Amino acid sequence: MVSRVIPVEEFDLVIFGGTGDLARRKILPGLFRRFLSGQMPSGSRIIGAARSDLDTDGYRQMIRAAIAEFGGVEKSDTKIEEFLAQLHYIPVDAKGEAGWKELHDLIRFEVVNAFYFSVAPSLFGDLAERLHTFNIADNDSRVVVEKPFGRDLATAQELNDTLAEHFNETQIYRIDHYLGKETVQNLMAVRFGNMLFEPLWNNHYVDHIQITVAETVGVGGRGAYYDKSGAMRDMVQNHLMQLLCLIAMEAPSQFDADAVRDEKLKVIRALQGVEPHHIVRGQYDAKGDKASYRQDAEDPKSFTESFIALRCEIANWRWAGVPFYMRTGKKLKARSSEITVVFKDLGHSIFPGDEKRHRNILSIQLQPNEGIQLQVTIKEPGPGGMRLIDVPLDMTFADALGLDADDSPDAYERLIMDVMRGNQTLFMRGDEVEAAWAWTDPIIEGWKARSDVPKLYDQGSSGPEDAMALMHREDRRWRDIKE
Ligand code: NAP
Q: Residue 98's domain spans which residues?
C-alpha cells in the first residue's frame, strides 16, 4: 500500500544548530525524504543557522555529505540537486548580534515560518529573545524545541517561562520523537477506533501492563554527558511516560491537540509515587575488552543508572490496582521497544487436562519493526482432542499492509511536517512536561538521600537480576527482550 502524501503549505524553516549532529543525522535527511515523497512544496526553504563560518554553497556541500551518509535513500543526483537548491545558510550567533539582521531580511512572513532550536537548551532563551528583538518571528511563527526539556521541575519551569515570554503555547512544539512513530499513532487508532478493546481496557480485565525500551548501544562517546542524566531523566520521564499516557488515557472527546493532551496530563497527575522497593537501577559491567558503564562515563564512582525498571500505579477508576512495569536500559540483549497489555487469566477452564495458563496478550512493537500482535488461545489443529495452544494474530504493518519501509516517514519527518501543518497533537504541552518532572523529581531525590548504588548487570543481558525479581515476586514475568 502506498502511503498518501498530502503536501504541506510553502514554508521557511530555520534550523538553529543546522551544522550539528541532530540536524545532519536526522532533520535534514528526513526533510530530503519528505521532499522526495512530494510533501515539501518547491518554493519552501530550509535555512541552516549556526556560528560556523560557512556560506550557502559550503552548507549545501555539508548536507549533501550528510544525506549520503545518513539519508537512507537511493542517491538521486537530480533530486538531491533540486533539494539542495532549497537550502540556505546564515552564520548566526545565538548569544551575539552577528547574522540576525541577515536572517530577518531572508525570512518571508507570507509563508509558514518555523524555527527549530536544535541547540543546547541553554541557548533557547537567547534565540527566543533575538527572534523578537530582530522582528524575525511573529504571532504565527512556530518554534520546535528538542529534548532534554529540563533536568528537573525547576529547570523545566524555567524553560517554559523563557519560551512563554516570547511565544504562546500554541506556537511551541516540544519534540518527543517516540510520539512520531507510526505504531504510537496506531495505538490510538486501535484503542479508540475499535469496539473490541475498550470494554476490556481496565482493571477488571487487565492484569498488568509492561513497557520496555531496550537498547544494545552503550553510552560510549557521550558518557560524560549521559552521566549527568541517566535512564530516568533520559528515557523514563519523557519517552516511556508518553507511551504510558497513550496506553492509559481516557478517550479524548475528539482527536485534537488539546483534547488529547488534556487526557494525557490527567494520567500523569494520577500517577502514584514509587516505593523504593519497586525500583531497580543498574549499570552495565565490563565484559572482556568492553568497557563498563563507569569507564564509559569516565567516572569510577558514578551512581548514575544506565538501566531502570520500576513498578507504578495510576490512581483512577480505570486503573486502580493494575501495575504498570516500565524498564529501559543500555547494552541489553536486543534493540526492542514494546508495550504489552497482559489480560487476566480465565477464571475457570472448561477443557479437561488443560492446566496451562492461557492469557490474551496484546503487544505493540515500536522498534525495530513496528507492529501489533494479539495472542489468542485456539485448539491445536488436528486430531487428538481439545488441546489448546496460544497463537499470535499478527498485524505487523509491513506484512499486513504491504507498506514499503521507505514509504513510511520516520518519526522526525512526520513530526516536522506536523509542525508545518500546525498540528500539535503529537507534541508535549508545557504542563505535561512539568507534571512528568513533578513525578520524577522525588524518585531521583530519594536515590540521592539514600545514596542508592545501581546494581551491576552483564552486557547483552536483560538487566540486573533484581529487575526480574521485581516481577517474579508478584508471579509475573517480563517479556523476553528480542528483536
Ligand atoms: P551538536 O552536534 O553539539 O550541535 C550543536 C549545534 O549548535 C551546532 O550546529 C552548533 O554550531 C550550534 N551552536 C552552538 N552554539 C551556538 C551559538 N552560540 N549560536 C548559534 N549556534 C550555536 O548537538 P546536537 O547533537 O545536534 O544536539 C542539538 C540539540 O538536540 C540538543 O539540545 C540535544 O540535546 C538535542 N538532541 C540531540 C539528539 C542527537 O541525536 N544528536 C537527539 C535528541 C535530542 P556551531 O558550533 O557552528 O555554532
A: 11-146
